[in-house]
Amino acid sequence: MRYDDPRLVDALAREYVIGTLHGRARTRFARVLAASLTARRAVLAWERSLQPLALAVPAAVPPTHVWPRIATAIGTRRGRPTFGVGLWQALAASLAFLAVILGGLYLGQGTRLDQAQYVAVVADQQTGPIWLLQAFSRELRVSTVMPRPEPAGNSYELWMLQGPGLPPVSLGLIPGAGNAVLPLSDAQLGVLAQTMTLAVSLEPAGGSPTGLPTGRVIFTAPLLRV
User: Fold this and answer.
1) Which of 138, 133, 176, 184 is nearest to 155 (CA)?
2) Per residue in 106-135, pLDDT tens?
3) Hey, which of 32, 33, 88, 117 has its CA 20 to 30 A from 202?
């Protein structure tokens, strides 16, 4: 694996911070961190980018059955962090805790966290995270972390970016404030499985009239498989 590729290092750093890099891949990247200033800077950049997301939601008590899973994931004893937990592990735990809160409170549906298949965080470089996106088996759940009201006469539309030469595919409209659930068709799920990046464009009210982005793309976000 070419750890001198900045795009690869950035992608691994993102998954390392969030906690979706597991097993030998995580062990190998930990060794890379010890020797690579570029990798350490990438991890620090993702920690700083994602930390506001963990701080944006008020504290809440998750269901009792969740604690053992968190403890196992971050290497704790009796549900309390050990002193050896590093900064990025602690941040990953905070993000996992946030996902538990959102997963449990979202629209009162009580869907288990382990049913989520994909996660993305759409963020503004200046103000921080705006939307948390969680794709489940047949639906995409949109949680607004920092409200960003749509300009008058416009709507935000979410797109899946495909490979070179292939058109973006719409996932639907997302709110500037509050939450939403977008149903996922078989066709959308097929594209989602091949997608690495999501994008948000500013469209006329009601969405693109052409089936393709007509307004400017204002945000992009990596799509993580969990």
Assistant:
1) 176
2) 434 443 434 558 888 888 877 778 898 989
3) 117
* 138-183: pLDDT as tens digits: 899 998 888 999 999 999 999 999 888 899 999 999 999 999 999 9
d(CA 51, CA 144): 16
Q: pTM for the whole thing? A: 0.54
Clarify whether residues 41 and 120 are in a common domain: no
- First vs last Cα of the chain: how many Å apart? 21
- From residue 90, alpha-carbon distances to 39, 65, 70, 94, 135 in Å are 18, 20, 11, 6, 24
For residues 128 and 170, what is the distance between their CA atoms, to the nearest angstrom? 24
Q: Domain check: are 11 and 86 in the same one?
A: yes
Q: Where does a domain end: 86, 110, 134?
A: 110
SS3 185: coil
